[in-house]
Amino acid sequence: MTIQTALLQGTELLEDAGIAVARLTAEVLLAHAMRCERVYFYAHPEQELKEVEWLHYGRYLHERLQGKPTQYITRRQEFYGREFRVTPDVLIPRPETEHVVEVALEVARGARRVLDIGTGSGALAVTLQLEMGAETWGSDISAAAAAVAAENAARLGAAVRFVVCDLADAIAAHSIDLIVSNPPYVPLDQKEGLQREVRDFEPHVALFGGETGFELYDRMVRDAPRVMRPGGWLVMELGFGSLHPVEQLLGGWKNVRIVPDLAGIPRVAAAQTQ
Fold first, then answer.
1. Cα(220)–Cα(134) distance, rounded to whole angstroms?
2. Cα dihedral 47, 52, 54, 56 in deg (nearest 10)
3. DSSP code at position 208
4. What is the enclosing helix (H) or strand (E) of 136?
5. Cβ distance 207 to 198 under 8 Å?
6. Tens-place pLDDT, residues 146-180
7. Given the DSSP bridges, would you call strands 160-164 and 113-117 parallel, antiparallel or unpaired?
8. Please, which residues have CB within 8 angstroms of residue 124's CB and are 6 or more apart in sequence?
9. Which of 78, 90, 107, 183 could, after both became Cys, cross-link 121 (CB 3.0–4.6 A)?
10. Cβ atoms within 10 Å of 217's Cβ, excluding its own
């Protein structure tokens, strides 16, 4: 079995199953099986696969056909130009969450102490610590997620401290200049409408924000003034349909900003404490 044939067969299997970007997925899975970069395939299409490479590739294809996200198979996902390790204990970082980083850097680059609530893989906390050099904390209700985040921070050289707690419950009063968060915001009644890859494989504690999807926004916004220093910034990713409820929650804040993503969808809410 050559690289070229393996990719053709893998692509066909994935296409027949309705998997998006089938060719790219086949390449990523084969590269993971062969422990090489995808560009290697273009220079060596006739190279024969070793038996162990073919066995791993077949297993990875089977897992993807069963709905397992590619990132959970390869255990990797890029975010803001850095490679993060991901496991089924954490939400897979999305490109749109990079807008949270961009807004935070714009409004609060001089922050001395940063908190990432619901840190998951640590993508936001690690990125902001490396970009800003501030003292950075990440909180998560899941000890398993905090362990993944700590591993990412150590591997990428980010000085981030992680605490297992509910939202900001363990954070001292008036100690934070910048809070960032990509909170769970999917309403529970929308569970069945989610993609299989999301519904069946990503951690529900990182997906669902209660009956309405706004419960965690409400709790964060209410508690943030206790945690933040005067003039601090709160920067949150917005879920679909959450714009108006979040705007209402931020009614008593100043300098409220709503930033759209590249598709024009409201993606980030930022506001400053009094």
1. 21
2. -130
3. B
4. strand 135-140
5. yes
6. 999 999 999 999 999 999 999 999 999 999 999 99
7. unpaired
8. 97, 100, 101, 116, 138, 180, 181, 182
9. 90
10. 25
